[in-house]
Specification:
52% helix; binds tyrosine; binds adenosine-5'-triphosphate; two-stranded antiparallel ribbon; 17 helices
Length: 351
């Protein structure tokens, strides 16, 4: 595959930014198998954002010949008080995440935080060195990468290690490409600023779109908090579509979704059409009775959005269509991911 084709795959939806494209071009020109990672805290059930949209992007990287890793950040999970900080639960849920990604992204490598830290003794020295280059103020401002804010949350000393550890993970894995949702861009920009001073390899950062939750978006002006507050998240079960939801649950969640007639901005149902459905299907058929205009076929997202904006497509028809297509995407995934009673209970009781 030529370099232009590889870049096209990396930049394809749901990618929102590549920092920088010039560096990515240089990387592909000089390295036939660059190393990528995306890291996840392991806590709740996997959803459309964390497994499916993220997995679409990982699969694009794999197609482009990139060596992909999903990093299961077990120590970060512990630091962030997820799963009650109970290591038996963390290990159990970690296996569930590993199996889900191995199934959805064939060829991806899985690395656990604890495995990395045990095998690289130099990690802790690098963490100390890195922390000398990171101000306390900057550390506090990066708390958004763990879904917290220094103003609202009581932060313990352990949590202050979270952002510099995430940065040192990147150096320790010797990565060329760091990938995450837009909510993680702060730490990657920090890495790009500090690593050159330490003479560490500077990775290209690729950030994908953050899928919004199904509820009404929260009115927040600060763009960084915006990603965090309205995103589909494993901590908010009503606003997310989880890979284990039944057909009925998916349908009922879409029925309740925020989708005012003619409103395109921050409309979560349109977002799912764009980033999930049109990623998988070349055409989408809206089925409706002749008295409401009859069936209509869309071969691209833009036409669907335009019809919705012009009130030619009603929210209930859009919701029913999106619900049907999402169910078709989720069904085969749901069947392949084993969710034992014990695992399900462990997750439910702690999220
Ligand atoms: N709604 C989403 N859309 C796209 N990507 C997402 C979404 N939620 C999480 N991700 C991405 O998946 C990776 C793991 O995120 P994370 O472990 O914080 O999941 P989460 O569901 O947001 O969890 P939490 O509820 O604890 O905030 C990150 O790179 C993040 O950007
Ligand atoms: N901060 C990431 C998790 C993560 C942790 C460590 C990493 O090296 C990478 C990612 C999240 O909330 O999703």
């Amino acid at each position: 595959m030529d370099v232009t084709e590889k870049i096209k795959l990396v930049k394809r939806e749901p990618t929102e930014e590549v920092v920088t494209e010039e560096e990515l071009l240089n990387l592909f020109n000089t390295n036939s198998q660059p190393k990528h990672y995306i890291g996840l805290e392991i806590s709740g059930f996997m959803h459309l954002g964390s497994l499916i949209l993220t997995g679409f992007k990982i699969n694009d990287f794999i197609k482009a010949g990139v060596k992909c890793t999903v990093f299961l950040a077990d120590w970060h999970t512990y630091l962030n008080n997820k799963l009650d900080g109970d290591w038996d639960k963390i290990r159990m849920v970690s296996k569930y995440y590993a199996d889900a990604f191995k199934m959805f992204c064939p060829g991806v490598e899985i690395v656990e935080g604890s495995q990395l830290y045990e095998s690289r003794r130099g990690y802790w020295l690098d963490l100390v060195k890195f922390s000398k280059n990171m101000s306390l103020e900057r550390t506090m401002r990066s708390m958004t990468i763990m879904g917290r804010s220094a103003e609202k949350d009581k932060i313990d000393l352990g949590q202050l290690f979270y952002p510099p550890m995430q940065a040192v993970d990147i150096h320790t894995m010797d990565l060329d490409i760091v990938h995450a949702g837009m909510d993680q861009r702060k730490i990657h920009m920090l890495v790009r600023e500090i690593f050159p001073k330490m003479k560490w390899k500077v990775p290209v950062a690729v950030h994908h779109h953050i899928l919004a939750g199904l509820g009404e978006p929260e009115p927040i002006s600060n763009s960084d908090s915006d990603f965090v507050s309205s995103k589909m998240s494993k901590s908010k079960s009503a606003s997310g579509i989880f890979v284990h939801d039944t057909d009925e649950e998916i349908n009922s969640k879409f029925k309740k979704a925020w989708c005012p007639e003619g409103i395109v901005d921050k409309n979560p149902v349109l977002e799912i059409s764009k980033h999930i459905i049109f990623h998988e299907f070349d055409e989408v058929i809206v089925e409706r009775p002749a008295k409401f205009g009859g069936n209509v076929t869309y071969t691209n997202y833009q036409d669907l959005e335009t019809d919705f904006a012009q009130k030619k497509l009603h929210p209930s028809d859009l919701k029913a269509t999106v619900s049907k297509y999402v169910t078709n995407i989720i069904k085969p995934i749901r069947e392949k991911i084993v969710l034992t009673e014990e695992l399900s209970e462990a997750i439910k009781k702690t999220t």
